[in-house]
Amino acid sequence: MGSLTASPWIYVVVAVSVVLDVFLPVLPSGVLVITAAAAAAAAGAAGPVPVAVPAQVPDILALLVIATTSSVLGDMAAFRLAQRGGARLDRAIARSRRLTRAHERLGTALARGGGALVVIARFAPAGRSVVSLGAGKTHRKVTEFLPWSVLAGMAWAGYSVALGYFGTQWLGAPWLGTAVSVMALFAAGALAVFVIRRPAPATAPAA
């Protein structure tokens, strides 16, 4: 991983991982973003005091833009696939026990949470997959889904990059900053799952 973060190929690996983890949630895209940001912080690639670093060290701004853009592209790919998938996609989802359970849990939340759920689900395990596929499957308009996807991508990428960068700056050792940041990312995912699963508030009966 250390040699990868010192190469321009880290941008390609991050982009591909973020795009594909909407279909394969097990891909460690968040860990890759955090690790690259930690490498940039450790090398002094960003910050108030300029430091001479090798050109191939990840640039923090480029990493943020690539992670955000890749997140939106992956969302839209899943959205379009679900729009055109029909019964074949339904069968594929049904074969995945984890995705089926997540789809059931998020069904009610989608109805009551609206666009904000797209942002929250971006941090939850498999939440991005379910929301993107669900929005396409229910034939939502692109103009309804895309702005929330962009906001979700910016929030997730900004949080992940900030964790890796500032965590390494504050803790000093890149490995320690990365480990703590990954735990914080998982904590955000657990919080997102809790918010999504929270039962809807009971409405008072009409008088």
TrEMBL record:
UniProt-listed Pfam families: VTT_dom
Domain VTT: 37-165
Keywords carried by this UniProt record: Cell membrane, Membrane, Transmembrane, Transmembrane helix
Any GO CC annotation of this UniProt entry: plasma membrane
Subcellular location: Cell membrane
Top-level taxon: Bacteria
Transmembrane domains' residue ranges: 6-24, 31-54, 60-82, 145-167, 173-196
Membrane topology reported for the UniProt record: Multi-pass membrane protein
Signal peptide: none
Family listed: Belongs to the DedA family.
Protein name: Membrane protein
Organism of this sequence: Streptomyces roseus
